TrEMBL record:
<feature type="domain" description="Nucleotidyl transferase">
    <location>
        <begin position="10"/>
        <end position="201"/>
    </location>
</feature>
<dbReference type="InterPro" id="IPR005835">
    <property type="entry name" value="NTP_transferase_dom"/>
</dbReference>
<comment type="similarity">
    <text>Belongs to the transferase hexapeptide repeat family.</text>
</comment>
<dbReference type="GO" id="GO:0016779">
    <property type="term" value="F:nucleotidyltransferase activity"/>
</dbReference>
<dbReference type="InterPro" id="IPR050486">
    <property type="entry name" value="Mannose-1P_guanyltransferase"/>
</dbReference>
<dbReference type="InterPro" id="IPR029044">
    <property type="entry name" value="Nucleotide-diphossugar_trans"/>
</dbReference>
<protein>
    <submittedName>
        <fullName>Transferase</fullName>
    </submittedName>
</protein>
<feature type="domain" description="Mannose-1-phosphate guanyltransferase C-terminal">
    <location>
        <begin position="297"/>
        <end position="414"/>
    </location>
</feature>
<dbReference type="Pfam" id="PF00483">
    <property type="entry name" value="NTP_transferase"/>
</dbReference>
<keyword id="KW-0808">Transferase</keyword>
<dbReference type="InterPro" id="IPR056729">
    <property type="entry name" value="GMPPB_C"/>
</dbReference>
<dbReference type="Pfam" id="PF25087">
    <property type="entry name" value="GMPPB_C"/>
</dbReference>
């Protein structure tokens, strides 16, 4: 009976406006966690996955954006999914573990037996239910979602070594200079409430060190200039590394897709991954050709119900079209995200691009790129309210908001 009554809470760390500078110009007018991928805010893919956890009582979003930026979304998604979602604003950045500890009383108000912690900037299939079952079988304090990547890319993430049989975390190092392992941390965790005691120990230890060093004003000045605040606790360096090999942390390996979303290019790639997942778990979200008055659909495509598309348009694969978009005759869209209130006129082409809110693309124009998701100019980005006039070609470029292009550009950042 006890297991049936156990409650689970989920915490999603959403960061704040001092970060995400690499996501510009798309983060100028919307918080990065609310940027739409496959037609849904980035963080909604996490929330939908959390909703499937048995006995979930609450979902918390923790960050230092202003509350007004999340208020409408939190209210709407709580009503839509019928699960309490609450935004908690930090007074300042506390780190991934410090933010969890800062709101420990609220997180524990329902006395949950387990706490999920997810970073908002990861894209995966979020196997949370299977991960929770594995965690319970391990009997440790925490379990990390991990995945194998190429040896060349591993040092961009937290590398780890796990026991191949017991799955215990034996060694953890964040972005090492030399190769340690092709197994990396996915930024998704499940913990027992014991995690709060571990974080508290880190905070208390730091405070004790500060007090000891106050014997000298010079030493105190040196400490203040080179150390982090006592309540800033990083999950990776301050918790995972010290506890590795102590039979407290375990791993659960994902065999599905995983990416980290740090740039607009990666958001375009991840939108395609989520669209492909819709085909398996939510096929009703994908567009289909069910009538002569519908455009030609190729592959996985999301179209908001309010969008208006001419039947001679050809859309896909990997296209996401947001609210109130207007697509004229002969338009070709492939591998792109088209945001709210965009107008694309006759015979225009958009490929490997993100078209910002309220932008306009003229007749016979092309907005395109090579599709290198990791390169700075690997996709073309139009910021909000950009106008591309008739017969203009925009290639491998980034255009900041409120610009008008009347000549073709290639590999430029238009300020």
């Amino acid at each position: 009976m006890a297991n049936l009554e156990e409650k689970v809470v989920a915490v999603i760390m959403v960061g704040g406006p001092t970060r995400g500078t690499r996501f510009r110009p798309l983060s100028f007018n919307t918080p990065e966690p609310l940027f739409p991928l496959a037609g849904q805010p980035m963080v909604q893919h996490h929330i939908s996955a959390c909703k499937r956890i048995p006995n979930l009582s609450q979902i918390f979003l923790i960050g230092f954006y202003e509350e007004r930026e999340f208020a409408l979304y939190v209210s709407a998604i709580s009503n839509e999914l019928k699960v309490p979602v609450r935004y908690l604003k930090e007074d300042k950045p506390h780190g991934s573990a410090g933010g969890l500890y800062y709101f420990r009383d609220l997180i524990m108000e329902d006395y949950p037996s387990h706490i999920f912690l997810l970073n908002f900037d990861v894209c995966c299939n979020f196997p949370l239910v299977d991960m929770l079952e594995a965690h319970k079988s391990y009997g440790g304090m925490g379990t990390l979602l991990v995945i194998k990547v190429s040896a060349e890319s591993a040092n961009k993430f937290g590398e780890l070594v796990a026991d191949p049989t017991t799955k215990e975390l034996l060694h953890y190092t964040e972005k090492p200079e030399t190769f340690v392992s092709d197994l990396i941390n996915c930024g998704v965790y499940v913990f027992t409430p014991e995690i709060f005691s571990v974080i508290q120990d880190v905070v208390v230890h730091r405070e004790d060190r500060v007090n000891l060093r106050r014997v000298s004003s010079f030493e105190a000045l040196q400490l203040a200039t080179r150390s982090v605040p006592t309540d800033f606790v990083r999950l990776d360096q301050d918790i995972l590394s010290p506890l590795a090999g102590k039979k407290q942390l375990y791993t659960f390996e994902s065999v599905d897709f995983w990416e980290q979303i740090k740039t607009p290019g990666m958001s375009l790639k991840c939108s395609a991954l989520y669209l492909a997942q819709f085909r398996l778990v939510s096929p009703h979200l994908l567009a289909s050709e069910d009538g002569s008055k519908k455009p030609t659909i190729v592959g996985d495509v999301y179209i908001h119900p309010s969008a208006k598309l001419h039947p001679t348009a050809k859309i896909g694969p990997n296209v996401s079209i947001s609210a109130n978009v207007r697509i004229a005759a002969g338009v070709r869209l492939t591998r792109c995200i088209v945001l709210d209130d965009v107008e694309i006129m006759e015979n225009a082409v958009v490929m490997h691009a993100i078209v910002g809110w309220k932008s306009s693309i003229g007749r016979w124009s092309r907005v395109q790129a090579v599709g290198d998701y990791n390169a700075k100019l690997g996709i073309t980005i139009l910021g909000e309210a950009v106008t591309v006039e008739d017969e203009v070609v925009v290639t491998n470029s980034i255009v900041l908001p409120n610009k008008t292009l009347n000549v073709s550009v290639q590999e430029e950042i238009i300020l």
